Amino acid sequence: MEKTIGFIGLGMMGKPMAQRLINAGYELVVYNRSKEKATELLRQGAKWAENPKAVAEQARLIISMISTPDVLKEITCGAKGILAGLARGKTHVDMSTVSPSVIDELTEIYQKEKINFMHAPVLGSIPNVIEGSLLIFAGGDKEIYSKNKNVLEALGKRVWHFSKPSQATHLKLACNLFIANMIVTLSQGLLFVQKAGLKPEVLLEALSDSTLNAVVYQFKGHTILEENFKPRFMVEHILKDVKLIIEAGKNNNINLPTMGVIKELFDKAVTKGYGGEDYSAVFKIIRDTK
Questions:
Q1: Is the overall model pTM greater than 0.85, yes or no?
Q2: Which residue, 80, 124, 176, 254, could crosslink 249 as a Cys pair with Cβ 3.0–4.6 Å?
Q3: 160 bridge partner residues
Q4: How far apart are CA 181 and CA 203, in angstroms?
């Protein structure tokens, strides 16, 4: 039981995270709404559970990596959810990117049930998962964090701890605010110089030798110019996060003037059928808008 971890959500990020825990020597009990995504993990010794409740019954630590706040609430609080199978002394660590309001709600529910809960969203993409270089923002009780820190460190190169679960949520959304703004800024810059008759690669060169440079500008700049929109972070997922940022801003009485425009751009990208492409596909929306 001590080395057994429950893992719920085997999507683009969840599956390689689960794989990394297996590689680190942990025994896994896994659940995903579509079982076929677990096939490779099951071949390596992971055990399948028919629902989140069954996962919680078989592990002392349950990790969830879920797509949306609504799905997180469903797999946590439903009739066959995590809470239905958790006993006191066990811990649920959610690592999804969801809304602070939902995390506050779940925190209150867990506190009433006297069951441990943490929120530990991650910053990074699939290559970061594979090499163990995720950045992890862990919010929750210090003692519970200390007991599970070794598991988090198996997934990431640095872990920050905060006393309140939703503080971690806010930090993750702030980082995604940068991601959304940077890709829109980069797309505009590439088009701006291109329309002036310059090669857009020149802009990337200039940025690389200046204090304006960022890794994301160089990597995404070149993939955009190659018309390579293979997803690392899908348009539909960044749109979800932009909506969460706007909602959290309103709840905290913060004016976030660029986010409304960015939401419209990603909305258009989904409407155009780019929802499953990399979030850099917003470049095509800006390029094709007259």
A1: yes
A2: 254
A3: 137
A4: 18
